Structure formats: structure tokens, C-alpha cells
Amino acid sequence: MNSNLRKLVTIFTLISLLVLTACSTTTPKEIINEAYTKSGSLKSFAFDYNMKLQANNDASKSSNPVEAQALAMLQDANLSIKGKYDKEKERLQAVLGISLNGDMKISLDIPILYADKKIYVKIPNIPFYPLPQDMVGKYIVLSDAIEGPGKAMNNSELGTSLAKEVIGLLVDDFSGSEYFTIVDKKDAEEGLKDSKHILKFQLKDETLDKFVQTFSKTTYPKLYTILTNEKYTQLMKDMNFDTSDMNKEVVESDMNSALEKFHKDMMLGDFTLITALNKDNYVSDQKVSLDITDKSADGMNIKLILSSKITEQNQEIKFDMEIPSQDKIVDLTNLLGGQ
Fold first, then answer.
1. If 0-12 CB within 10 Å is exposed, 13-18 middle and 19+ buried, where does residue 88 land?
2. Comparing C-alpha atoms, which of 306, 304, 307 is closest to residue 269?
3. Dihedral of CA 307/310/311/316: which sign?
4. What residue segments make up the domains of the chain, in order of their start?
5. Tens-place pLDDT, residues 140-181
6. What is the pTM for the complete model shown?
7. What angle in degrees, to the nearest 10, is found between the helix axes of 205-214 and 252-265?
8. How far apart are CA 313 and CA 94, in angstroms?
9. H/E run at residue 66
10. N or C: which end of the chain has fewer CB within 10 A?
11. How are beta strands 197-203 and 180-182 bridged, if at all?
């Protein structure tokens, strides 16, 4: 697969890979291996990712006008990425949706197409950044614009091996019912009741300290050993991750000091990961929710929900976005005003 396409797919599937865990009558690690194997066999699929952010606070109380405006805009922000992907055709299409529903209402839909080893981005009409109308609706072409962690996908087998080791380690150390629970189908959220398996991982303010202490004393040393393994050296470089900056162990006094500061300034209401597998053992749904309060900022409460749904696994994908003709392509330099 072309490296640019790998990088683009990595961005659109990041949430899925981060929470790729499941549950059944076998061990969680066995399910993880099976889920990765199934996901590795995917040649085509449709995806629907959503992010919802709510920042509940009285923005008018802020003495900083820039901060007040930002808070007002983020009171109900939504980001969505919906599209389709076909590995054999080396083609991906998606629509990036941005919606701000606070005091300043903004709604944008940005079509994106990967085809012919190029990334085409349709120029939207941006209310707060007006562009010449002869450019709106045309496309810019990005041939190699996605850098950084996506380069690791050049060796997908090694990346999968690392992910299995890291996630398997986390599941081994935190597989107790205090953190992981099997969700009964009758108690599942709407849309998940037909899932084959549903697993929930949950952290609350009262369980955070024990989790951090276990991670620091037990998990981190083993994680250090994995990440500094010679076979992952080049992969770490491709991800711009310098393992030489890592300490071999966590200093207990530093950990305790960090926890003390966190509890002084913040309160974790809830952090939950839910993963569901369909009848074919494909990871079909994920949901990440965070509820946290900043006690040092007049009690500002932030709620973040990330969700993803994967469908049409290995089915025939029909694309409706066409490669734009040359007269519909705008040079990026001209778009930026010659800068």
C-alpha cells in the first residue's frame, strides 16, 4: 500500500486502534490477538467517527476576553469523519464535518479524497476566513502532507506487533473487575444490543490513584522494556518517539506529587472505554467518554465523547467522489495568498 494512503488511513482509524480490546469466555489477550488478526484482514470498510466536546462554564466570568470567546465557542463542539476505504483500489473518501454550536455557530463540511496516490481536499466556504469565491468549491492537492507517526505504517507488521505487546500488557495488569466489566446485552446502549461481546473499562476519581500506582510500579518497567527493544528502534524513530528520554522507572515521590497536584486542581468524574465486537468478531463500535472538572478554573466541567462505527467489512465499496479535473485544482500557494 502506498505510504501516503497508509498515513491517511492511520488518522481515520486512530480511535479504533487505541481502544482495540474485547471480551469473551477466553482471556482478554486472546481476544485482542483475534481482533487484530481480523482487523488485519480488512480490505474494505465504511467508517463513521464522531467527537463531541462540551465545556460547561459561565464564559462571562472570565477576565480574559480571548479565553471567554474560546469557552463560548467550545460549549458544544462536534467533529465528524465519515467515509469509505478500499485497500485494493488504494482509494479513500471522507467528509470532515466541523460544527460549533456555542455563541458563534459555525458548520463546515470538507470532502477529502485519496486516489491516484494523491490527497484531494475540497475548499469550503469559511465564514470567519473569507476566500475568493472562485476558489471555493475547488480542490488543493496534498501529495506528501501527512508526516510524523504515520510513517510507522511503512512497516505495518512491526506496528501491529508493538500494539499487541503494549495493549496485551495493559490488559494483563488491569484485567480485574475493578477496571474491566462485561456488559450484558440487555444493559447495553442502543445500537450495541446486537453485539457479540461488549467490554467496558472505567476509571473514576476514587480508583485513579490505585491505577496510577499500579501502572508506575508494575506496568511502566515492562513497557520500558518493550519500547526500548532493538526490534522497535526504527519504528520508534519513524514515530518521532525518542526512547532515550524515557526513565527506566517512575520515581515514587514524583508520582505522588503529581497525583496530589491533580486532586488539588482537578476532579475525574469518569473515564470510560467501551468496545464492541460484531458476530464476525470484527471490532465494530468504540466509545471513549471523559468527564473532568477543573477546580482551578471556576469549576469548569469538560465532557468529551469519541465514538466510532465500522461497517461494510470486506464488502464491495462504491465511491461517489470523483477525481477533480485540472481546472478545479488550486495551487496551495495561491490559496495562502502567495505566502
1. exposed
2. 304
3. positive
4. 3-335
5. 888 654 444 444 444 556 777 787 788 778 888 887 667 877
6. 0.75
7. 160
8. 16
9. helix 65-73
10. C
11. antiparallel
